[in-house]
Amino acid sequence: MASTDKPDHRESIKSEEALAAPPRRSNYSSVHVALRVLLFAASVTAVVVMVTAKQTEIVPVPVFPFSAPLEAKFSDSPAFIYFISALSVAGLYGILTTLASISIVLKPACATRFLLHLALLDVLMLGIVASATGAAGGVGYIGLKGNSHVGWGKVCNVYDKFCQHVGSSIAVALFASVLLVLLTMLSVFSIYRKIPK
Amino acid sequence: MASTDKPDHRESIKSEEALAAPPRRSNYSSVHVALRVLLFAASVTAVVVMVTAKQTEIVPVPVFPFSAPLEAKFSDSPAFIYFISALSVAGLYGILTTLASISIVLKPACATRFLLHLALLDVLMLGIVASATGAAGGVGYIGLKGNSHVGWGKVCNVYDKFCQHVGSSIAVALFASVLLVLLTMLSVFSIYRKIPK
């Protein structure tokens, strides 16, 4: 009898644990909300750091025999303008989906359909943010190292603070891209978990 | 009585249609396979077009007072090397997942878990391909238009065929990125459809 009692006892403990544990959906949702707040913060940081990347230096003018103050700013490069646009959209998307996720945590009806829509939108945003990060990174790398094959000189030996801002902004945008990958994966996994095994 | 009969009749027609119609899972899988074949083809095309982008032109050397033949090729730019690497990985991924999808069409056991893994991997590949397309696009745009603010001259007025290859390759890579977005969305939607309503 003792041998048959033990499994029963274990099962009762397990079922008690299952009753005592909070439902897993709420955990997933809180991780969702936290990641979306991080996405918003990262996007806004990237935009602010890029917009404030202004530096004026006295540089020799190529044709005339004198030097003049020249300002470096993000709007000098179309890639950086695209970067600002994409990350601004990502920031707006981050705050809107944070609010939407909080409303779903409070009222969990239609949560699965909501997760589907979020996953589809996250994929789109990932494509936009990743391409913007790539474009800004490609142009920033030329600014840092130059390209001797086509005679593009490096810029960062003169505009050092400007390049620090651009580099930091791109790093934060890369973090935002990773967050979007994680968010999409989390949404997909949350949908998958709702399938009865 | 007539009013109660009609719904029954409609329901019986619906159930007959449901029995007669083929299961939708196979349709989704065939679309999956077709999109993955397209992804493979697009990635290989982008890589081949970029690798064959070589052009030699006689260009004036800046320091010495004579002209010399100079070759433009993809390996001159780190962004293009990253582009080639990322699209090669995407091509390999395309052919491997095509074969895996075909095997799942033939033996549909574990199809849902397989869809989950594909969706997670698709998201990663999308991030890589989109950033590579962005980086190559950013550098290609400087080659096309130049940047007067930092004195980077345009290249495409001399190396016209090289730029045509690069532009075509980036356009095909953009198509591959869109395919990856569609594939991820399709996987997510296929998983969502398996949840009982």
Automatic annotation (TrEMBL), chains A, B:
Q: What is the top-level taxon of the source organism? A: Eukaryota
Listed transmembrane segments: 33-53, 79-106, 118-144, 170-192
Keywords (alphabetical) are: Cell membrane, Membrane, Transmembrane, Transmembrane helix
Give all residue intervals belonging to the Casparian strip membrane protein domain. Answer: 29-179
Does the UniProt entry include the keyword Protein biosynthesis?
A: no
Q: Quote the subcellular location field of this record.
A: Cell membrane
Q: Which Pfam families match?
A: CASP_dom
How does the protein associate with the membrane?
Answer: Multi-pass membrane protein
Q: Which InterPro entries match?
A: CASP/CASPL, CASP_dom, CASPL
A Gene Ontology cellular component where this protein is annotated is: plasma membrane
On assembly, the entry states:
Homodimer and heterodimers.
The family classification in the record reads: Belongs to the Casparian strip membrane proteins (CASP) family.
Q: What is this protein called?
A: CASP-like protein
Q: Which organism is it from?
A: Populus tomentosa (Chinese white poplar)
What phylogenetic lineage does the species belong to? Eukaryota, Viridiplantae, Streptophyta, Embryophyta, Tracheophyta
